[in-house]
Here is the input.
Amino acid sequence: MTLVQLRHFIELARSGSFVKAADVLCMTQPALSRSIKALEEELDRLLFDRIGKRIELTAFGSEVLPRSQALVEEAEQLKNCGRQLSADDSGRIRLGLSSGPGALLSAAVLSHFTQHYPKFHVDIVRANTASLAQMLRDRQLDALVVDIRFLRPAPDLKVTQIAEMDGVFMCRPDHPLAAQTRVGFAQLMAYPVCSTPLSEETARILVERYGEKAHPSVMVKLTSDEISHIVQVTENTDTVLLAIRASAPHLVELPVYPPLKTKARFGLITIANKSEPLFLPVIRKLMREAMR
Here is the structure.
């Protein structure tokens, strides 16, 4: 069994076609067929069901695929062990960002790699934390940046907390509440409140500070996973936004009393027990700069 055979298997599983996979791999179809057959013989099980011109992974093939991907990825990262990323390096970064990190990091990551590592492909995926975690496990993403309060602890994920950022109530500068020196919860509730989905920890803090009516299921009238949408709504209406302060620099913070005192905890998530990808220190540095 060789890494080359595993790469052939992974590409064939991805393409779903000997024709397409052979084209991507720059080899003939007979050569690809021989490689897959040799791998199946060594494993003593079929990896694919051949249905006419179509192929499908067998149950065994579906089990072997993520393990093959992990072996190939580990081999690639082993080559780069101890080396720093240079402008001559090429590759692909598949980075998952949840709502807050997406607002803070997307442009920074794209700009930095365009300027300093122009040969890299950068794919940014925006989604909720649960979806991103599954994509990471399926090897569709290389790393995530999320609010780790939303992430269920699991032995297969490595979590590195990078920054804490304050969550606050905000509004547009000419909002009726903007001129107040102190805003009570009853005053706040006179206006629609919007937010991204809130963690159970934030919900608990809200209820402790302001009572049962502050539970997100009651208080929050507008919810979106995409923070840019609700920031825009807040900039153009009397809506009040509950989010990390840095996500909406053009809004003003409301002096709500008692103070909310909640923090988002942003972390970098990767698959546990894997060598660190070459680009990961760059992402970590960009996180620290953007989330000061």
User: Anything to note?
Assistant: The radius of gyration is 24 Å.
